[in-house]
Amino acid sequence: MKPKALVLQAHGSNRDFDVMDALTLAGADATGVPLNELRNHKSLLADFQLLVVPGGFSYADALGAGKLLALDLASYFADEVSAFVDATKPVIGICNGFQVLVKAGILPGKQNQTQVKNEATLTFNAEGHFECRWVNLKSTSQNCIWTKDLNEIITCPIAHGEGNFQSIENISSEHIALTYVNANGSSANGVYPINPNGSTMDIAGITNAKGNVLGLMPHPENHIYLWQHPRHTRGETSGSGLKLFENGVNYARQM
Description:
Elements: E1 4-9, H1 16-25, E2 29-34, H2 35-40, E3 50-53, H3 67-75, H4 78-86, E4 91-94, H5 96-103, E5 110-111, E6 114-115, E7 120-123, E8 131-139, E9 154-160, E10 164-167, E11 176-181, E12 203-207, E13 213-216, H6 242-253
Parallel strand pairs: 1-2, 1-3, 3-4, 4-13
Antiparallel strand pairs: 5-6, 7-10, 8-9, 8-11, 11-12, 12-13
Helix pairs in contact: 3-5
């Protein structure tokens, strides 16, 4: 039976159909649900096994990227989202969705039943401009259900102006799910543009302590077909992001 995935559609979301395509290909029944519809039917969230906050420019990034949608999740849907996360259902936020999860306090999340202080943020890229390029990602977590057994480097695009992950204190290694790397898998060592935004410790994505929530800046949903690789006509077709979504869907199927 296909697990049901809710893809949250806010004003300004523009990667919702891309991620629905990836989830469908991975074996899920993906449905886009407008934020206002969810606001009027909060119990609807409990009918789904996966929650996705897609990329885009929610609320035109007013007051900061993802800030207003984060306020929605932390106020109107706090109980419902908390119950979803505590039930260890898979949750993923991509690009703007990652910014939302961090600013809503869902990531880094809880550790030993205690809320981790929200001392992390995603701020302006170190180079001071919007970045649109392809990057390489390496899984660094076997605890995260989305990145478990991802042995191949993922190659996919980024498109953001505020993807610079910073934390007041070094984030625990258990929360680091994905890092920016060279094509051969070696560390970026903070070097631009391998690390495209200046994120501390080359962090591209983080997870919560339970490993069911993933937030990442790059867009693996935009490399799920061989022909999407920018050099596919030259025979370079490796690095698909589909496995990441298959991990989430397969985990949800077992719940």
